[in-house]
Amino acid sequence: MGNLAGKTALVTGASRGMGRATAERLAADGALVAVHYGSSAEAAAEVVAGIEKDGGRAFAVGAELGTPGDVHELFLALEAGLKERTGETELNILVNNAGVMGGVKAEDTTPEEFDRIFAVNAKAPFFVIQRALADMPDGGRIVNISSGLTRFANPDEIAYAMSKGAVEQLALHYAKLLGPRGITVNSVAPGITRNGNPLFDIPEAVAAMSALSAFNRVGEPQDVADVIAFLVSDDARWVTGSFVDASGGTLLG
Ligand code: NDP
User: What's the gap in Å between 17 CA and the centre of ligand 1?
Assistant: First the structure.
């Protein structure tokens, strides 16, 4: 367990999946966690209730990313929630996790679908970081969730992989910019990780997906959350601008 007592964190897309597991882990490590959601207010409230039941501190913040005014709305709710609980708006940790898949063949991808994928997966994290920096003191932590698909071909997810390739650029350039402030910026690339997708209820599909990992299983949200917990801890103070492969060895080929 890391020690995040006295720290505050924002995890986007924390109503389920890896975001949820990350919010739970950071809260267990002692952080006050803002559990962000897009439309699943009830699920986010359940995450908060679960964290509080386990003795942690959290609150939910809603904002549909990829829409006009999204970041403003997010930070209005975030700063109000932080101020209410800590008396200030200091944010130590940002995990840009919210994302959407495409699941459409390249030849069928419409310009509207392409724009939506980029708006949520690439544009929103850029502007969330830009805004978060006003609240982030020296020594802060930023983690952006990419995907193994930036290094593993999948012709059904070209636009999605492009958006994640863009996200990876955030770590490279922001890490250089923010180094003097002791703020680290890293990318984490999960492989196939269990979420609410019905595919994970089909044993044959799970077996096929498992075969892609060196460990012959699909990832669990906690597998990735634990990697993120390391990167936001003090132990990772010397790691910045990195691409962390959290794909269970999928990228080994
Ligand atoms: P899920 O699909 O389980 O959950 C997505 C989360 O993101 C939800 O909390 C959802 O909130 C939020 N979200 C989605 N779109 C928006 C939006 N427009 N505005 C605000 N919130 C939004 O996520 P996963 O755990 O599967 O994935 C998490 C991250 O990891 C994503 O960035 C994904 O691309 C990446 N990834 C996932 C892999 C996988 O196999 N699962 C593999 C590699 C990378 P709400 O429901 O409230 O809208």
Answer: 7
